[in-house]
Each structure stands twice: as C-alpha cells, then as structure tokens.
Amino acid sequence: MAGTLTSGKIKTSKKISNRKFAIVVAEWNDEITEALYEGARNSLLAHGVKKSNIIRKNVPGSFELTLGGLWMAEKRDISAVICLGCVIQGDTPHFDYICQAVANGITEVNIKTRKPIIFGVLTTLNKQQAMDRAGGKLGNKGEEAALTAIKMLES
Q1: pTM for the complete prediction?
Q2: Which residues are within 8 A (CB) of 107 and not within 5 positions of it... i.e. 6 or more apart?
Q3: Which of 18, 68, 69, 100 is deepest in the core (most CB within 10 A)?
Q4: What is the CATH number of domain 18-154?
Q5: Residue 47 falls in the annotated catalytic set
Q6: Which residues of 112-127 are buried (b: 16+ CB within 10 A; e: fewer)?
Q7: What's the rounded Cα separation, in Å, for the pair 93 and 58?
Q8: d(Cα 137, Cα 140) in Å, to the nearest integer?
Q9: DSSP state, 25?
C-alpha cells in the first residue's frame, strides 16, 4: 500500500473540487474491494471533490487493474486514478506473480501517462488481514489511497 500515510483530513486547495478522479475496482474479493471503494469515495467527497467528478470502473480482478487504470488515465479529463484490489495468499505461487505484475504494471502506467496512478491493492496473507485494512481495526486503505491521490495532485 501507499507508505505510512495516516487516514484523516488533509488541507486541500479549492482547485481539487474541479479535478476528476477515476477509481478502478477489482471485482475479485468484492467484499473487501467494495469497502475499499467506499473508503476512497467518501474520502474524496470529504475533501471537496464533486460527486460527479468521481468515475468508477470495474475490472474482473487485480491483474486487470493495470489495463483498467491505463484506460482511465488516457482520458484527458481524468486527473488521477486510484486502483483498488485485494490479493490474498493461497497455497500456490499465483499470489507472488499477481502481486508483482500488478505493482509493476501500475508503476508503468504512472510513468507512461505522467498522472498519479495510485496502488491501492491489499496483498495479505489471509482474509482477516484484508478485512482489518478495509475498514477494520487498521483503518481503510481505500481512504489512504484517495488521500495519496489528492496529495500527488496538490504537490
């Protein structure tokens, strides 16, 4: 996830309300990703982003976040893209391949589009760890991803 950014309110300029944000949401592990989406959306709204300036794009799973993120970032009116997903470790190396591919892919989209493409993907050992990070005892990493997007646009 995006470093050690804490949840909460940050100071923003008035221009943030006119920026458009895309939130790309993986449908796999939807109980988790819906909670991440709600956290991100609510955080953007709390910081003055207009509801009409938050565009949601669903993709089947975390692996598809890269292409979904690219499609949204290529839209001229989108200022930042928040990619939200959840990969829970299983008994095979699939977890490692997916996590590495998504991290590398989102990094490439950042560089290619020169727009903030935020990595809001939980990579956890089990479902409980994911729940703890999607509105549970460790906060909501979707909210943190939204704050990261705002901070990138404000810098």
Answers
A1: 0.91
A2: 119
A3: 69
A4: 3.40.50.960
A5: no
A6: ebebbbbbbbbbbeee
A7: 25
A8: 9
A9: E
Residue 100 near residue 141 (C-beta atoms within 8 A)? no
Q: How far apart are CA 83 and CA 69, in angstroms?
A: 7
* Each residue's pLDDT expressed in tens, for the chain with a length of 155 residues: 344 455 566 666 668 888 999 999 999 999 999 999 999 999 999 999 999 999 999 999 999 999 999 999 999 999 999 999 999 997 787 888 899 999 999 999 999 999 999 999 999 999 999 999 999 999 999 999 999 999 999 87
Single-letter amino acid, residue 36: L
| Whole-number Å distance between alpha carbons of 115 and 81 | 8
How open is the CA angle 21-10-14, to the nearest 5 degrees? 60
Please give the sequence-ordered ranges of beta strands (E in DSSP) within 44-114, or none if there are none: 54-59, 80-88
- Whole-angstrom CA distances from 7 to 27, 105, 113 are 24, 26, 27
Which of the residues 94, 104, 127, 128 is marked catalytic?
A: 94
